[in-house]
Structures are given as C-alpha cells and as structure tokens.
Amino acid sequence: MSQKSKRERNPKGWYNAPAFAMNLLSVHEAQERILSHFKPVEAETLPLTVCAGRVLATDIISSDLPLFDNSAVDGFAVMAGDLVHATLISPLILRVVADIPAGSSPDIILTHGQAARIMTGAPVPKGADAVLMVEDTDFNNRNAGAGAPPTVKAFKSIKVGENVRTRGMDVKTGHKILFTGSRLRAQDLGLLAMLGTSNLPVYRKPNVALLSSGDELMPVESRLRPGQVHDSNSYTLSALIAQAGCEVYSLGIAPDRKDAIQSLFDQAIAMNADLIISSAGVSVGALDYIKEVVESNGKLDFWRVNMRPGKPLAFGEYRGVPFIGLPGNPVSAFVGFEVFVRPAIGQLAGLKTVTRTTARVRLAEAIESDGRESYFRAIVEEREGTLFAKLTGHQGSGNLLSLVQANALLIMPAGVKSLPIGGQADAWIL
Ligand code: AMP
Ligand code: MG
User: Fold this and answer.
1) Confidence (pLDDT) at 144
2) Cβ distance 92 to 85 under 8 Å?
3) Distance CA 84, CA 283 (A)
4) C-beta of 114 in contact with ligand 1 (< 6 A)
5) Is ligand 1 within 6 A of the CB of residue 280?
6) Nearest Cα to Cα of residue 238 among 375, 376, 339, 341
7) Separation of CA 281 and ligand 2 centre (Å)
8) Residue 286 has what pLDDT?
9) CA–CA separation, 235 and 330 (whole Å)
10) Most ligand 1 atoms within 8 A of CB, residue of 284, 329, 332 to mutate
11) Which ligand is closest to the CA of 233, given by its number?
12) Residue whose CA is at the smallest distance from ligand 1 atom 5
C-alpha cells in the first residue's frame, strides 16, 4: 500500500504526517521538558544607569505623576472666569503680579484681574485655574528673554483647567506601572527616573558557556587545510546569547576527542556557567562524543525532535549544570537556538514572556514540507496592510546565506505537508 493512501486529513484539510513521525518527540514536548529545568537566577541591585536591557526583579508601584500642578505651556496663569469676554478685538487687560520660571515655587495667591507669567513645567500658583498661551496675548514670542510685563492683554477666553497638568494626572499613587519579569527599555528607565529611583533590583545576567565540536572546525584566524571549515556557529550562537541578555563564555572548539570535550565542559563548570550550549557532535556519527561525555558526568536525554531543520537535540546536565546540545549544521543550530535555547535562557533570565511574538502572514508562494514542524527562512514584507512571506532560496540546513537574506522564520505546523499560495502561517520576525 502506498504511503499516500494511509495518510489522513486533519481538520484543516492537510494531510497528517506519516505514522513514522509519531515516535519523534514533538517540538512542544521537547520545549516543555527543557523549560521544566529552568528557574530564574538571583536578583542583584544596580544603579539605574546600567539597567537598560536588564530584567526587572520587582513590581514598581508609582507615586503621583506629575508631582504638582504645572503649566503645559509658556504663558500666563489666570482665573478662567476673568476672560469669558476676551476676544482679539476686545482684549482683556490683566495685571501681572508674579513671574514663575520652571524650578521655582510661587508663594502667591492669584485674585481676580491678576495674572502670573509662567513657564512650561512651572508650578501653577494658588488661585489660578488655567494658563493662557503666550501666543494668545500681546506678550508673544518676540519678548522671549524679557522680564514679565506689568500688564498683559488677553486675546482669548479659556476653559477652567486648560493647559494645566494636574498632580497625578498621568499616574496615580499606588498604581503598578512596571512588572517583575519585564525587560527594561529606554522609556521604562525614564519613568523610573521620574519617580526618583536610583537603584533597582534586576536579575543578574545568566552566564552561558558555548562550545563548538568537530575535528573539521578551525578558528576564523586559521588557514584551512583540505576538509576543514571555519567554526561559524560560535559566532552566530554567541551573538544570539549576548543579544538575549546573557554573559557569553565562548570556550572555542573541542576536537572529536572525549578528553578535549570534557576539558571544555570542566572550564564551563569552573566559570560558574548557568547553562552549557554546544553545537554538533550530537547526531549518530561515529565521532559524536558529546553525548558520552555528558552522560558519564551527569544525565543525558537524546531526542529526535519532529522538526526541520534540526532533528537531533541533546538535553541534560553536566555536573549539575543544564546542557543543551544543538545540531551542527549552521541553520539547524540557529533554529535550535530559537526554538529551545531562547525560551530556556528567557526563563533563566527571569523574563515573564519567553516566546517570540508571532505574526500571521500570507504566503506569496506555495510551500511544501515532509510533515515535520518546519522552520523556513523567509522574507516578510508588508503590501497594502498585509504581511506576505516568500522563501529565501534553497532550504538546506548548511545554507547560511538563506538565513542571512531572511528576516523571518516561517512556521509550518507538524502534520502539514503543503500550504498553497495565499495560505496563512505564523512567522517569527527576526
Ligand atoms: P555534526 O553535527 O557534527 O554531524 O555536523 C553537521 C554539519 O555541521 C557538518 O557539516 C559540520 O561540518 C557542520 N558544523 C558543525 N559544527 C559547525 C560549526 N561550529 N561551524 C560551522 N559548521 C559546523
Ligand atoms: Mg561532527
């Protein structure tokens, strides 16, 4: 009987993966098993100046912002009731009784017929209930730098509260404004500074040790002899690890010898790594020793994951430190990082959300797979409000250029063997 006749259609109408795929571990199962071994590293207290990109280790409760009623414009603090009849042709004249620059604290109480010159951000004096913009008076911008005039003509009426930023108008005391597990962005730091926060509890950066394995690998500085290739995974993976907010211990290349591999793993332990990542040496090749070394110094699971690229994946513990062994092919290593290491690192780092945001995209070409959960290198572009995805050339797991040209990984779920042009899929924007 042919394979085709045995296949079943799933509810979306696509053929399910053939039965042989069923003894592979699903991507989701592999992720769950890995994640169950990670919890956040400890917190440390750091000055706000170095907290950009760090993960917050506490919730932040606000006090009132702004802290006092202040002017949103340069102009004149007034009593709105005085100006009900003010117009350009019949302006109202007010007596200017004070000059309030930003940073000062007025001790006057305004009464009817009076105004106080005021700058943006300066406290609105008692008695005043609105600020008339300088452009709506005879004391306009040409007078910048001059002292306050004795009187001012108001050309417009104004509503109570206009151009006044009242205390607590942006944030009220007691409001939770930032949350444990969020990565601090520029604007978050600004808001914390507004509250006068000088030191902040954040999770320390996880330490991630990285090694490449294989006799054929040479450092970039070396001239290659026949059969050798440059170690590219070290560069790709250390950049990914650093961008994910970790310290990278780049241990270099372990040749295909147990003692050499073990010595790099021991270095990782000596450096107090929170996680050890390797690439290559975990498939079924005769010289794939990584698994043996980990197994004899800890625990090892070796999985065949129902995904493409990157089916082999090793996970375990080396002397108590979690270990993830990625496949060696450069694209497989990258995809393996995105699928398994990024969430694990996120959990170590204390992040609340460890998954990438996905975009729903429309296919600009039909795509086919073999029923494994497939990660295609794609370019996602917006055309008239819709995101369209097309693939970047051949999808061989050694073809790193196709990843260089990509700005997204397009995900074809397990069990789906083809998607038509115009069909929809999820994509991770890189
Ligand atoms: P392996 O997992 O050891 O069977 O390696 C699979 C393929 O990936 C082989 O073609 C290796 O030469 C290649 N490869 C393994 N590690 C690296 C690396 N660090 N940089 C570039 N290519 C690699
Ligand atoms: Mg190898």
Assistant:
1) 59
2) yes
3) 83
4) no
5) yes
6) 341
7) 5
8) 67
9) 10
10) 329
11) 1
12) 328
325 lines ligand 1 (CB under 6 A): no
Minimum CA distance residue for ligand 1 atom 7: 329
Task: Say how far apart CA 284 and CA 311 lie, in whole Å.
Answer: 11
Torsion sign (Cα): 145, 150, 153, 156: positive
pLDDT at 19: 36
Helices (H), 297-422: 330-336, 342-348, 401-404
Structure tokens that stand for 314 in this block: 């090793």
Q: Is 232 in the pocket of ligand 1 (CB under 6 A)?
A: yes
Q: Which residue in 318, 205, 212 sits closest to 268, CA to CA?
A: 318
Q: Count of residues for the chain?
A: 430
Rounded Cα gap, residues 356 and 173, in angstroms = 33
Nearest atom (ligand 1) to Cα of 234: 19
The residue to which tokens 């030191």 are assigned: 199
278 lines ligand 1 (CB under 6 A): no
Tokens 């002397």 sit on residue? 319
Closest ligand 1 atom to Cα of 288:
3
Q: How far apart are CA 120 and CA 118, in angstroms?
A: 7
Per run of 10 residues, the mean pLDDT along the chain (length 430 residues) is 39 39 81 96 98 98 98 98 97 98 96 98 98 94 75 98 98 98 98 98 98 97 98 98 97 96 98 97 79 94 92 94 96 98 97 91 97 97 97 95 98 97 97
Beta strand segments in 64-169, E: 70-71, 75-78, 92-100, 114-118, 130-133, 151-154, 164-165
Distance (angstroms) between ligand 1 centre and the Cα of 233 equals: 8
Q: Which one-letter DSSP state was computed for residue 256?
A: S
C-alpha R_g of the chain: 32
